[in-house]
Amino acid sequence: MQDKTLVTIKDLYVEYHSNRGILNRKKTIHAVNGVSLDIKKGEILAVAGESGCGKSTLAKALIRLEPAKSGEILINGKNVLTLDKIDLKEFRKHSQMVFQNPYASLNPKMKIFDILKEPLEINTDFSKEKIEDIIKEKIKLVGLDENCLELFPHEFSGGQRQRIAISRALVLNPEFIIADEPVSALDVSIQAQVINLLKELKEKYNLTIVLITHDMSVIQYLADRVAIMYLGEIVECAKTNDIFTTPLHPYTKALLSSVPQINKTGRKIILKGDLPSPANIPEGCKFHTRCPNAMEKCKTCKPQEKGFSHKVKCFLYE
Ligand code: SF4
Predict the structure, then answer these.
(1) Distance 146 CA to ligand 1 centre (A)
(2) Which of 4, 42, 66, 160 is deepest in the core (most CB within 10 A)?
(3) How many angstroms does the Cα of residue 295 sit away from the middle of ligand 1?
(4) What is the CATH number of domain 5-317?
(5) What is the mean pLDDT of residues 127-143?
(6) For a pocket test of ligand 1, which of 293, 306, 311 has the largest count of ligand atoms closer than 8 A to its C-beta?
């Protein structure tokens, strides 16, 4: 991993509007609430948190699959949110996404060769021969045989399909990949193969990977740094080892305590209630309704981010 910053996210907000509230009133879902984050070239940055915390929305906003309400996403100095059509097309060549479900993300009616050919035909003017060479190279890179290019997705196992999805993400030689829960739809027995493949690719090609996951064991093995997300906000961010050995935020401590392989003390921190709805975010510190350490001021005042390499938003560290 290098120290060069590849992506800078500044005060990013993403909102949805829905009509399904009480009395059919319009509800605003605050999915991402003022996220600021640096992603360094060649690192695997994991974004972790409970389902519904906004991590997948953040991932999609990073490559403009979701529109942002405000903020900036600077990649190589350019603000992704203001790119015009031509620059956006260029940007998409360098930023790819691997989705959670390899059963849904590959078109069942297309042969693997055609699935891999599509992004090359749309985004480049390479010759037929060059496209064929790239496809053969990338399919081998993920540990599959050239013969599989003539088959359809249903002829593969879940792990093999995820390898194909990864090779599709690689055909344009991206420098930045977002992997959204890349192993959670796979059997435990094959999760390790895909995890090891991502690690190998990152090391071999100095790829930058944003790993979206709720699985703390996957994070411990794969990530260089971890950002912990709660109700659309990053509440703690540090090197993986620091998060696992000296977690600071009460929410991070609770997340880690729920993983038996990580929590050797056996003392589990049980949080009060469920994750509040992102349509109804608590005042003050968003975590105060569930925090075992909450103080009076947490109900009304917002903690600011403190720290340099180990950042945390909590009054306990002010
Ligand atoms: Fe808990 Fe208060 Fe810290 Fe929020 S600011 S995490 S409520 S102690």
Answers:
(1) 54
(2) 160
(3) 7
(4) 3.40.50.300
(5) 94
(6) 293
State which ligand 1 atom lies nearest to the alpha carbon of 303: 5
Question: Given CA atoms 232, 11, 46, 251 in this order, what sign does their dihedral have?
Answer: negative
| pLDDT above 80 (res 25) | no
**Residue 99: both structure tokens together:** 């989705």
Query: What order do you get walking across the sheet with 225-230 strand by strand?
Result: 95-98, 176-180, 208-213, 44-48, 225-230, 233-239, 311-313, 305-306
Number of CB atoms found within 10 A of residue 190's CB: 16
Count of Cβ atoms closer than 10 Å to residue 277 Cβ: 12
> Percent of the chain, pLDDT > 70?
97
Put simply, whether the predicted model's pTM sits higher than 0.90 gets the answer yes
CA–centroid distance, residue 318 to ligand 1 (Å): 11
Domain boundaries, the chain: 5-317
Amino acid occupying residue 40: K
How far apart are the CA of 291 and the centre of ligand 1, in A?
A: 6
Alpha carbons within 13 A on the beta-carbon side of 10: 11
Residue 89 pLDDT: 82
Question: Can you list the alpha helix ranges (DSSP code H) found in 63-127?
Answer: 85-94, 102-105, 112-123
Q: Whose CA is nearest to atom 5 of ligand 1?
A: 314
What CA–CA distance (Å, rounded) separates 35 from 204?
30
